[in-house]
Amino acid sequence: MMDERRIGIVGPCSSGKSELTRALRGRGYRVKEIRQEHCAAPAMWQRLTNPDVLIYLDVSMEVAAQREGLSTPSSWWEDERTVRLAHARAHCDLYIDTSTLTVEAVLAHVLQFLSAPQQNAVTSESGGFVVTPSDVS
Q1: Radius of gyration in angstroms for the set of CA atoms belonging to the chain, rounded to a whole number
Q2: Is 67 inside a domain boundary?
Q3: pLDDT tens for residues 13-60?
Q4: Is residue 24 part of a domain?
Q5: What are phi and psi of 84, to 5 degrees?
Q6: Is residue 31, in this structure, part of any structural domain at all?
Q7: How far apart are CA 84 and CA 134, in angstroms?
Q8: I want to staple 15 with a disulfide (CB 3.0 to 4.6 A). Which of 59, 66, 124, 131 is the partner?
Q9: Does 78 reside within a domain?
């Protein structure tokens, strides 16, 4: 049976949104890659997609620059994270820092989260499930 939840994936450039979207779609999930980082309206992710589950993928500036093949982070990168993505980050159900994770590790954490009963999820103060590099063994 296909999972009927609408899943939104948001985060800064080079955080792994496209890879995760493809991987989840290949497993039958209804997924929308939300390009909120390019939009000045902080809640546009909610208006356009209104997902049942919002996944926020994060990445450090240094790793983002490396993934993009740049010697230094883009000048707009910090504004992207602190202004354009702040609303989505505050409302996410799952937050993952992908800086030191492989695509496979990110997918494994997401699949674990999606299959876990909500009452068993480990949550942060904002209510979202959090995976950080220190959680990875």
Answers
A1: 14
A2: yes
A3: 888 999 999 999 999 999 998 876 655 666 777 777 889 999 999 888
A4: yes
A5: -75, -30
A6: yes
A7: 26
A8: 59
A9: yes
